[in-house]
């Protein structure tokens, strides 16, 4: 029986493991793939305080060492079901049919950026293709970049990048944006942002690094190549929370509804990191959630034990 069972070993889950284990609770961490989460895909994490110039993998290795040395367990299995979620003792079921009992659960399953789906996207990951302007924008100072998307994230990315890059193309498949009017107005006021509307990205050009993005005009079907050094993909994120939908509230986009306290409304079930409703999805905010959720789980376990023993 575990006191705290964490689903997802990204920055949020790994931090929760540190806090859970240091809080004196028997803690286990599950991941379907590896430890580290999304961050292992980035060659350069430049915005995490105190650790400049490290790769995502170096960050993940450091935190893994920290929580395993404290005694938290790591298991590589995908969680496919949770039984008795609203009871004091909950059961988690894995893809291979194993069952584990626990007193509290922290959901830290993250989210994946939705890919463009064009050829070369994988090859250029970290070589011009980025899914995070906040993370990678500074690498494109005085360069030419494109942003693909039409929602608030795309517009905010275009605005952020316009202060760093020489020129920004904003490529959107419709002639109107889904983003808030104020975001649209701010971007339109930027001299170095060019709107490429009614257009879809159909290809990426370059050898080792991106040198161009091919776009097709949806009306005329004409194709042209824009010379760019980078393409920022901002067409949404996909959270992976279907497994939990019967006992926690998900919003329309599939994120677990919870505030800064990381509470879900179901006793003993907490949520941390990119998989919950929030504005900023970064390592710094994920690790913050991990600490908050784990301390809440420690408190829950202490209270539950006290009530059972009374
Ligand atoms: C390419 C890239 C570069 C980035 N660069 C930066 C950066 O430089 N700085 C920065 O601050 N942020 C960066 N980010 C964002 C940052 O990586 C995320 O905000 C952060 O990883 C979120 O952490 P998390 O723990 O909430 O989720 P994730 O990192 O998404 O981890 C979730 C984990 O849960 C696992 N999981 C999901 N479902 C299940 C299940 N059912 N059972 C078991 N395991 C499951 C997944 O396999 C995954 O390992 C970057 C993101 C990307 C994609």
Structure, described:
Helix 1 (11-22) packs parallel to helix 2 (56-70), helix 1 (11-22) runs parallel beside helix 6 (283-309) and helix 4 (152-162) runs parallel beside helix 5. The mean pLDDT is 94. This protein is an alpha/beta fold and 310 residues long. It folds into two domains: 2-112 and 237-309, FAD/NAD(P)-binding domain; 115-233, FAD/NAD(P)-binding domain (3-Layer(bba) Sandwich), CATH 3.50.50.60. It contains six helices and 17 strands. The protein has helices at 11-22, 56-70, 133-136, 152-162, 181-188, 283-309; strands at residues 2-7, 27-30, 73-75, 79-83, 90-94, 99-107, 111-113, 129-130, 144-148, 167-171, 193-196, 199-206, 210-217, 223-227, 230-233, 237-239, 269-271. Bound molecules: flavin-adenine dinucleotide.
């Amino acid at each position: 029986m575990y006191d705290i069972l964490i689903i997802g070993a990204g920055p949020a889950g790994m931090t929760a493991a540190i806090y859970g284990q240091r809080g004196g609770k028997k803690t286990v961490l599950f991941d379907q793939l590896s430890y580290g989460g999304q961050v292992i895909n980035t060659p350069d994490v430049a915005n995490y305080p105190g650790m400049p110039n490290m790769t995502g993998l170096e960050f993940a290795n450091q935190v893994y060492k920290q929580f395993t040395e404290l005694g938290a367990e790591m298991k590589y299995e995908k969680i496919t079901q949770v039984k008795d979620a609203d009871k004091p003792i909950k059961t988690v079921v894995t893809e291979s049919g194993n069952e584990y009992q626990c007193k509290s659960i922290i959901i830290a399953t993250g989210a994946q950026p939705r890919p463009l789906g064009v050829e070369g996207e994988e090859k250029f990951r970290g070589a011009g293709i980025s899914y995070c302007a906040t993370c990678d924008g500074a690498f494109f100072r005085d360069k030419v970049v494109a942003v693909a998307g039409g929602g608030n994230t795309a517009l905010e990315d275009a605005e952020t990048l316009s202060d760093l890059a020489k020129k920004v193309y904003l490529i959107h498949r419709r002639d109107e944006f889904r983003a808030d009017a104020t975001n649209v107005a701010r971007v339109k006021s930027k001299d170095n942002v060019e709107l490429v509307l009614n257009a879809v990205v159909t290809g990426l050009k370059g050898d080792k690094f991106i040198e161009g993005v091919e776009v097709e005009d949806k009306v005329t079907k004409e194709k042209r190549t824009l010379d760019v050094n980078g393409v920022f993909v901002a067409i949404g994120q996909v959270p992976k929370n279907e497994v939990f939908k019967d006992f926690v509230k998900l919003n329309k986009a599939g994120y677990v509804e919870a505030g800064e306290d990381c509470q879900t409304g179901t006793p003993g079930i907490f949520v941390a990191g990119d998989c919950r409703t929030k504005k900023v999805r970064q390592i710094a905010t994920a690790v913050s959630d991990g600490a908050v959720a784990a301390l809440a789980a420690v408190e829950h376990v202490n209270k539950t034990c006290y009530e059972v023993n009374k």
